[in-house]
Amino acid sequence: MLRGGRLTDGQQRALDELWPRFGIEDDSGPIDLVATFGNSHPVIVDIGFGNGESTWQMAQAAPEKNFLGIEVHPPGVGHLLLRLEEHGLSNVRIVQSDAVDFLRRRVADAALDGVRLYFPDPWPKKRHNKRRIVQSGFIDLLAQRIGPGGILHMATDWTPYAEHMLDVLRDHPAFENLSEDGEFSERPSFRPQTKYELRGRKLGHIVHDLIYRRRMVSSRGTG
């Protein structure tokens, strides 16, 4: 479901003026990533980027990569558009759509160099766990869209969700856990810490990073 929200004047101006430059309309056909970005640089998908603070910082730090941000919340999209304009970034494009649906319909197999999923909704109540984005079917989809050697990086400050992520990926043939002990990894330098994360840490929240590499070959139709 696309979520609404109150837009500031600046965010509305960004949606009106900057969306034609940075936005990707959610059409029905497969997307040509080379044409979209104007180059053949590796493409990283950032799912559910919130207000986009991490997205633009990662893009600024890695101009040799392209970033495709997906978010359903209009104020967050507007906020990121403003940051792209402010920092003169050209290696980011934005989709306002459901991430799973977009990846399934519009992204080709092995087209991505990586996927980043930071602090997704944990749906903490047991009866809502099935709404979590990280499920076996979603991981199967990512295994198809991420090319061999590509990186899947997830982060959450909800420990039960982190353990759920481990369980879902533990025996998946397409991904290998890059942690030395097969569980959680240290936060990599390319993942910025947002003010919300720092606030959570002060409240005692433990942030878990999970980093997986797409294997060269696998079974289950994902290789």
State Rg: 17 Å
Strand order of the largest sheet: 1-4-3-2-5-6-8-7
% residues in beta strands = 15-25%
Sum up the overall morphology in one term: globular
Question: Averaged pLDDT, please?
Answer: 92
* Discrete helix count: 9
- CATH H-level superfamily title of the largest domain: Vaccinia Virus protein VP39
Helical proportion, percent range = 25-40%
CATH architecture assignment name of the largest domain? 3-Layer(aba) Sandwich
Instruction: Tell me the count of domains.
Output: 2
Describe the structure.
The radius of gyration is 17 Å and the shape is globular. The protein folds into two domains: 1-23 and 49-107, Rossmann fold (3-Layer(aba) Sandwich); 111-223, Rossmann fold (3-Layer(aba) Sandwich), CATH 3.40.50.150. By secondary structure, it is α/β, with parallel strands linked by helices. It has nine helices and eight strands. Helix content is 35%, strand content 20%. It starts with 8 loop residues before the first helix and ends in a 9-residue tail after the last strand. Strands 1-4-3-2-5-6-8-7 form an eight-stranded mixed beta sheet, with helices on both faces.
